[in-house]
Amino acid sequence: MSRCFNFSAGPACLPEPVLKELQDEMLEWGDERASMMELSHRGRGFLSVARAAEADLRNLMAIPDDYAVLFLQGGATQQFALIPMNLARPDQGADYLLTGSWGKKAYAYGKGLCRARVAASSEAQRFSAVPAVDQWDLDADAAYLHVTPNETIGGVEFFPRPFGSVPLVADMSSTILSRLLDVSDYGLIYAGAQKNIGPSGLVLVIIRRDLLERCPAQLPPLFSYSQQAANESMLNTPNTFGWYVAGKVFRWLLAEGGLAAMGERNRAKAASLYERIERGEFYSSPVDPACRSWMNVPFKIHDPALEKGFVSEAEAAGLHALAGHRDVGGMRASLYNAMPQAGVDALIAFMDEFERRHG
Ligand SMILES: *Cc1c(COP(=O)(O)O)cnc(C)c1O
């Protein structure tokens, strides 16, 4: 085997036991004499897989019964549009908290579809921090407050608590399942699958059922969260393969001890990498220590001219995809659930060695 340690921000590494199971089941799933990819989404085989996946996710995240779970397509980006279309009247305000480029993009979509406004932004700090809570300009009548608990590009992570009765809508694409959190703090949680859930092409939406009453009746059914909930995400053919793989990832997470155990591992993985970055002057983190992400760790070298060499030599050493996002440069290590501590240790050893040669 010559699999690398894959630090890609997404599509990202998947747990090896899940990939092996997929390999074993690729030609024949159960006693169906066909691959899961070849089975009808209305058939007993796929329906049992789909329902077990939802039950396991509910168990993992302790999702209360008054929340619907949707397995949709169109990625997180499509939800940037569907959220205002479903939850805000065109004349109604919706607040956006901007702590990075994904939140900014969500706001840009929202602006075209409702009276979206910026409650606070850290763009002037180049999205390296979270604006102080007492500086958030919140509208008590807003349809929702949109937040991005983990900004995948900037590496800023924080978990806001709800304020008053305005529902929190959270883009958790790159932090879902990385630690235990209280779903009832949120009105709606959404996440593209390709970071911590499974392959791309699937997006999860977890929505409090009372919010489904807001979805306008005239929306095309495929774009309506209430229609999708009423039809168990099967108004049309869902991403059956992605749903099936996500179910295997949920099963793996349960076997690994659930989200409290994953949170402990993720905290330790991130802590070891930040400790290495902070040791000495060679590497540095651009992010405020109060909100450094456990999942996406951007870092820089004191001499930016060395960064290209760092990334290509790391690649040759089996440490894949460490280049920072094209908008911010530097390096970024994504440490999703499927990245073992051994991968982080290998990166730290490489950083030590690179510094010895160039420091
Ligand atoms: C990756 C990502 C997105 C975009 O997801 P798509 O599934 O490609 O639309 C949006 N928000 C966050 C926080 C992300 O990490």
Textual characterization of the structure:
The chain is α/β, with parallel strands linked by helices and 359 residues long. It has nine helices and 14 strands. The strands form four sheets. A seven-stranded mixed beta sheet has the order 2-10-9-8-5-3-4. A hairpin with a 4-residue loop joins strand 6 (150-151) and strand 7. Helix 3 (75-87) crosses helix 4. The chain is globular. It starts with a strand and ends with a helix. The model has no long low-confidence stretch (mean pLDDT 97). The chain binds pyridoxal-5'-phosphate (PLP). Pyridoxal-5'-phosphate (PLP) binds at residues 10, 75-77, 102, 148, 152, 171, 173-174, 192, 195.
Element layout with pairings:
Layout: E1 5-6, H1 16-25, H2 44-61, E2 67-72, H3 75-87, E3 93-98, H4 101-111, E4 115-121, E5 145-147, E6 150-151, E7 156-157, E8 168-171, E9 188-192, E10 203-208, H5 225-230, H6 240-255, H7 258-278, E11 283-284, E12 296-301, H8 307-316, E13 319-320, E14 331-334, H9 341-358
Parallel strand pairs: 1-13, 3-4, 3-5, 5-8, 8-9
Antiparallel strand pairs: 2-10, 6-7, 9-10, 11-12, 12-14
Helix pairs in contact: 1-6, 2-6, 3-4, 7-9
The structure holds pyridoxal-5'-phosphate (PLP).
Key structural traits:
359 residues, alpha/beta, seven-stranded mixed sheet, three-stranded antiparallel sheet, binds pyridoxal-5'-phosphate
